[in-house]
Structure formats: structure tokens, C-alpha cells
Amino acid sequence: MKIQTILIILCFGKEFNESGGGFLESQKFDIVVIGGGVVGTAIARELSKYKANVGLIEKESDVGLGASNSNSGVVHSGFTAPVGSLKADVCMYGNSHFEEVCDELDVPFERVGKLVVALNKKQVAELYNMQYVGSMNGAELHIVGKDFIKEKEPFIDGKAAMYSPNSAITSPYELTIAYAENAHTNGVDIKLNTEVVEIKKKNTKFLIETNNGLFETNYVINSAGLFSDFIASFSGEDRYKIYPCRGEYYVLDKNASDLISRLVYPVPPENAGGYGIHLTPTIDGNILIGPSNEYINDVENEATTKEVMDQLIKEAQNFLPAINRDLVIRSYSGIRSKIVPPEIGGFTDFVIEKSPKYDNFINLIGIESPGLTSAPGIAKYVVDIIDKMENLQQDEDYDGKRDGITKFDQLTLQKQKELAESNPNYRDIVCRCENITKQEIIDALKNPLGVKTLKGVKYRARATMGRCQGGYCIARIIKIMQEEFGFDVKELKLESNKSKLFSGQAKGWE
Amino acid sequence: MINKELVIIGAGPAGLAAALSAYEEGLRDILIIERESKPGGILKQCIHDGFGLHKFKEILTGPEYAFRYIEKVREKNIEILTDTIVTMLTNDKYIKAINQEQGIMEIKAQAVILAMGSRERTSGGISLPGDRPAGIYTAGLAQNLMNLHNIKVGEKIVILGSGDIGLIMARRLTLEGASVKAVLEIMPYSNGLKRNINQCLVDYDIPLKLQHTVIDVKGDSRLESVTVAEVDNQLQPIPGTEYDIDCDTLILSVGLIPENELSRQANVQLDDITGGALVKDNLETNVEGIFSCGNVLHIHDLVDYVSDEAEKAGKSAVEYINQGKKWEKENIFVEPGQGINYVIPQVISKEKDQIFSMRVKQPDTDKTIKLFCEEEVIFEQDFDKVNPSEMIKIDIKKEKFKPLKGKSIKVVAI
């Protein structure tokens, strides 16, 4: 980079910290990405292909704990966004490059296809509109009749459907973790539990004040999701406000996985700016029902509600009557960062642009669905903006390959026998629902980002995600954390530093 | 491939009793597979007393009760593979299991007894609304952490559900110095045993709030409070009755689910109500040579009855191994009718004395349990009180069945 000097890379400068009332050391970066969601980590990884000193800061205890872990995990084929929109472009790019990205990063991906099912005549007409828009974007779409639906999805009721063969599914949290790990391997400094307090302009650079130190950087990339309006405010950008819109989901037992094998969507409700409550087969073999669409006041209110959960079952039964509450193993919610208030609604494009005041402060605002699909495209788009200003140099040492944790249960019997032969930890099944071995738990705890929480294990090894929701494996995972990693009971966390799992030892033990 | 005459999956009270009874019947080639490192199942963590009154006429703790069986299994040199998890079971009784010592094992059995027990219903299973902070545990997990790992889950406790484990944990946590604020039960009656309500709640002044449930859970990182409301007869929260309880822990004791994932793999047909297998009077499932007993068949309130049932399964498995397929005789279906939630077994032969295990749908007084076949009453007995939490067992001699013409028996509580 032009402005990069040896001094900046090697030295820690001293900055006056007004709130702290003294001189604090600041860490120097060329580029800082704020936000460790799927988009932020994808940008960090894309930047790690070049010679630049990159940092990523994330306020939570792990990457991907916001909307990136609580969406449907769908790789969309791009038939909802208007032709020529940025959303349509990055979505189409993502859909065609996703398999390659997942392959490089050892993340599961499956092109299962999607049926958008019309339940009445009016909706059938709507299918043709969607097909028109989608075809203009370059998506392959077919209108199909009742017989096609019955043949492909025998449990689904519907008059007609639009079939999208290129729609796919992935694991959104595995992808985010993989992006972050690969970025880390290629030199990106990932700072977890680091929350931005203030960003100040200092000559041509920015000084980012956080609860975990001071960072000086030439470029800021604001990929802060629900907090992107707050971060943008430091760049003189005040045109956008985030309207948090909650979506609740149900997760069904794997015993129900035979009910559908493709994505099954309703015709989107008018002016909803969403897809409507749909059925998603997950890459792990569960089915998701959801998400609902509800504007809320608190951007961090990830609660689920009785009213919406009742609605999810009711709406899902409209086209899949075999669904019932006994199949539910979990509910959760995610929050979309919309930039239109409910009274306006409808389509809005992604905002990805230099801030009005500073060219070296790039804001990403309103990155909601299809944000997961678009992450590879957004990453390229953002890096192109910087490249035009900086003429980034390729880093010959970059290695885009990343190996995930070996999933014992998914191997052939022969391969399982070989692994079990060579490593006793593969002979020890810790999670009974998902057949996860002790080695996978250890691998998860030894993750490159240094995350040592129960949720860190959950999103890396799938433990506690099965039908018993950890009833069996939590005690076993805790034992591994204590015995193999030396944790004290009082130090064990669910996720954030404040989320202590236990109050301590039983009486007379200490 | 290892060949075995009888493989029992699970070394809890059901598996142990089934193994001993098969041994008593003369079988020697028996293998028990247990996923935990010690036999005993859930009894290991049930350090309170109250077990064995029916079976041994003594009041024992869980570990003591289990030890009576473990000791005998050891004396007879019945093989138990511990720390071994079965990952596959097929309808031709092929078993894939894995453990530290032997790695992956493939076993072919002549007969299999399913004795896998149950798991707890979770917050997801009851669609618990609200946040997802740390501090929400099922009662059995909290008990396991407390009694087997010396870990205290929290200090200010609310218990949702008045099942027996929840009641026991109310006392256990109180004894550990925690403050148990309330036990909430959505139904107008508790599903726990009466003696547990007295000994675990009344004796410690812990309020039992019937027809109350949790309608919201709050907490960013660790649980901070739950919102509680009274419910109406349709179990819906009554507006205006809500109040918050400050707590750091919510314990869920909201039911047990028979753990039949392996049974499903083997195409064992399950009963929608019990969640366990549909069984004949010898406890054989629809899959020839696969038997089921204990909590994997239906949820029991007393371990003593689990042992009884498992002994029968053990005996039946040996009969099957010695004589082969023999279920072709005339049989009768048994169905729950008015007031009865379920009856086990679901299919009986006319040639044998029968014991029926059943539960009523709701607590009541002055009820008559009747069994009839096409208007003809086979059996009737009056009860001053009936309660879903207390299993009713009824013995009927084979002479009663022989003259029956119909194909099904209905059981009612009227």
C-alpha cells in the first residue's frame, strides 16, 4: 500500500485518550473491519489476499453471533431483487461462486433447489411476476404444476409452484467461522470481545476507541450490521437508520427430515420486504420453520414469543399439514437490519459506499437477506473500492484453503474404523444425538480464534444442537473443558464474559 | 462380526434386571452395552431415598438400588461393555457400537432388549418464550452436574414443572444453600409423587404454584428474571396475572421422552401417546426378537415397576431364543378408552395371564376401571382416587380371555 510504512506496521504509537485521561498505546492497521458477521469476515478474508495489515473487531465473544447464525442458511438464486440493483448483482455473484467458496473453506453446501408454492389463483399469477424478475437477473426458474410438486415433495400442498434448481443451502455459522479462520491464518488480526466506543479522525487516519484498546487505521470498513448506523455516524453519515426486524424460527427434530427435501417457500406476502414463513431443510438434516417478520425497538432483543411461535406452526401447516409441535426441538430468533420503517416497507437496496465525508471510511448499511448469499460478492465489491484508491498488491503467501473439523458421523464405516484405530478420542462419543466424538469437541476448543465458550463448541462441532439440546453432552463437554483445558467451574461461559454457566462447586468441595 | 444370543442396550435399572432374568432362565451368552462409564443409569445421580419399597420392602437410595442389581450381574459374570455407545441397530438385529478399547464393533444378536431409558423434554420442546441466556437447565442435567460433578448450577432458582426430578432438585438445591423461589406447574395438579411434594416442597416452605407457567425469560447473558402468569383451563395465560421473579436459574422438569432413536432405525413401531414401542404381552415389539422395557417403553413413576417389567422382557427374550418365532396364535388388541391415557401391552394372547400397566388422563375420585370386550365386562375395580402420576397395574388370569369372541379390549375409567 502507498501509505503503508514500516513504522506503522512495527511500532505502537502513543495516543492521548480523553476518556481514560492518559496516554494509551494504540495498535496500527491499514484496514479495520468492524463487525465479525458473515459479511465482515468475508471482507477480512478477501483483504487477506493482499499485502495489507488488516484487523477485524467484533464486540461478541465469537464471530457470527448476530444475524449470521440466526438466518435460514439459504443460498438464494436471485429472483426477488429488481434488475440492476446492487442486491441482485451481489446475490447472483454469490450464488454462482458459493460452491467454490465452500469447497475452499471446507464448509458444507448443497444445491437442493427451491419451490415457491402458490396456494390460490392470485398467487399463481404472482409466480409469473417473480419468474419475470428472476429471469431478467439471470436466474433459472420454471413454473410447475401440481403433479411436479407432488412428485418432488409428496407432503406439500399447492396449486402450482415456481421451481428454482439453483437455490442451495449451507451452514451460515460454519461459513462465518471458516471465513474468519482463513482470514486469521492469512494474517488478519481478529479481536473478539471488542466493542467500538468512538471513532475519531486523526489527520488522514482514524482512531478507533474500544473497550479493549485503541486502534489506528487508514481505512475503516463498517460492517456492523444492526449497529452500522451507529458506526456510520462517526463518518458523517446520518441518512440511514436501522429498523430492527425480528424473525423467529422453529427447529424440527431430524426425525421429521423426510417431510421435505427442498426449500419450500410461500409466495411472499405483499410489501413485506421478506420471503414469508418458509420451510428450510438445513444442511445438518433438520427442518426450519420461519422466519416471522416483526419490527421491534431493541436491536438486541432476540427473544422468541408465544404469539409468533403459534403463528409459525399455523402458517407452516398451510402447505405442510404433517407438521406439529411435538417435532419442535428449539426456537430462536434473528434480527434483520432493515433501513426502511415498517410504514414504508418494500424493497430497499444494500448501501455499500464511501462515507460522504471520508473516502477511506466505507459503510455497509442495511445488509439483510440475501446477505449470506451476497457475502462473497460484497467482499469483492468492497475490496474493489479500496483497490481503486490503493492499488492493492497480491500477497504470494496467501493460502485460501482451510480445513474444518473432521465430522466423524459423516464418514464411511471404513474411514471411521481407520480414525478410531489411530486416535482413541474418535472412539468416545460425547453427543448421543449427533454422534459427535471427543476429538471433535477438542478440535472445536482448539479453534484458531481462541474461542473457549460452550456456544463456541456448539457452532463448531454441533454439540448441543440435537434433539436433547445438550441434556446429555453438556456435562461431558464441561468435563473435557476442565480436564483437558484446565478450566475452573466458575470460569465456564455460555458465550459472553458475563454469561457464567454455573455459580460454583457444591458445598464442602472447595 | 461378533455373534451374541442376547444383546441388551442400556445398563440402567431396566437393562440390569432384564439381564439377570435372562440369566435365571438359563441363558449365558448375554451382552449389556452401556454408554456411560458405570452401570446404573439415572439411578447413579438419584442420591435421595425412596427406591425399592415394593421390590425389596426397604427404602433405598438410587445408587443402593442399582447396586443390588450390579452386584448380582457381576457375580454371574454377565458381560457389560461400558463407555460404549450403540450408533446403529437394524431390524435384523445387527448392531454397530463404538468404544475406547475396541473401537468400532459390529455385533449380530439373536434377540435384542431395548432398555435405553428416556431423555428430558427441553425448553425447545415446550416452546419456552423469551431470551436464551445462560442459566436454563433441565432438572436431570442440573442433578447430574450437582450429584456427579459437584457443580452448583445457580443461586436463585425457579423450577418449571412439578415432575419428580424437579421436586427432588428443589430440595437438593435448597440443601446446597440456593434459594428456590417457586415450583410452577401449568396443570391444576402435580405430576410428581405425593410424598415428593411433601418431603421436598412442603417441608422446606417452597411454594408450589399450580396453573402457573413461565411466559417470558429475561437476561442478556445470565438469566435475570422470569415472568410468570396464571393459566386458564385451556392452559392459556390469563392477562393481568403476570409478575416477575428475580432468579439466575430456571430448572425445567417438564417431562421425559422415551429415547427411541435406535428403535426407529430398526423400524420398531411406536405408540403416539407413550412415545415407546407398541408391544405384545411378552414385551416384544413389531420387530421379531426385539423387546422393550423400562422408560424406553413408557415413563414409569417407580423404578421397582421398571425392574418387574424388565424381568419379563428378559424371560421373553430367552423364550424367543430357545423356541424361535411363536407369535401366531389368536390375539387381542388392547386400547385406551374414556379417561385412560394409555395401556401397555397393546396386544395380548388369550393363552396367558396378563398384567396391564395404565395411566388415567386426569386426577379424579371415585372411579371404576373397567376392561371390556364387545360389551362384555372382563374386569372392574373401584378406586377412591386416581392420578396420572401413579401408574395403575391390573392382573387378569387367562381364563377371563379364553371365552372372548371380539378382537379388541377397551380399558376405561368411569
Number of helices of chain B: 8
**Low-confidence runs of chain A (pLDDT<50, min 5 residues)?**
1-22
Report the strand count of chain A: 24
Mean pLDDT across all amino acids of chain B: 95
The mean pLDDT of chain A is: 92
The main pleated sheet of chain B reads as: 7 strands, mixed
What's the gyration radius of chain A in Å? 23 Å
How many DSSP helices of chain A?
13
Looking at CATH, the homologous superfamily of the largest domain in chain A is FAD/NAD(P)-binding domain
CATH architecture of the largest domain in chain A: 3-Layer(bba) Sandwich
The outline of chain B comes out as globular
- The CATH topology of the largest domain in chain A comes to FAD/NAD(P)-binding domain
Percent of residues in helices of chain B comes to 10-25%
Stretches with pLDDT under 50, minimum 5 residues of chain B: none
Number of domains of chain A: 3
Assign the structural class of chain B, choosing from mainly alpha, mainly beta, alpha/beta, alpha+beta, or little secondary structure: alpha/beta
Folded structure, characterized:
- The complex is a heterodimer of chains A (510) and B (414).
- Chain A is α+β, with helices and mostly antiparallel strands.
- Chain A folds into 3 domains: 24-107 and 169-242 and 340-401, FAD/NAD(P)-binding domain, CATH 3.50.50; 108-168 and 244-338, D-Amino Acid Oxidase, Chain A, domain 2 (2-Layer Sandwich); 408-491, Orthogonal Bundle (Arc Repressor Mutant, subunit A).
- Chain A has helices spanning 6-10, 38-47, 86-105, 121-137, 146-152, 172-185, 228-232, 306-319, 371-390, 413-422, 438-445, 454-461, 473-485; strands at residues 13-17, 22-34, 54-57, 74-75, 109-110, 114-118, 142-145, 160-164, 168-170, 189-191, 196-202, 205-210, 213-222, 243-252, 263-266, 278-281, 287-290, 294-295, 328-338, 351-354, 361-365, 429-431, 436-437, 504-505.
- Chain A is globular.
- The N and C termini of chain A lie far apart (56 Å).
- Mean pLDDT of chain A is 92; it is low at 1-22.
- With 414 residues, chain B is α/β, with parallel strands linked by helices.
- Chain B is globular, with a radius of gyration of 22 Å.
- The mean pLDDT of chain B is 95.
- The chains are: A alpha+beta (510), B alpha/beta (414).
- Chains A and B meet through strand 19, helix 10, helix 13 and strand 24 of A and strand 7, helix 4, strand 11 and strand 15 of B.
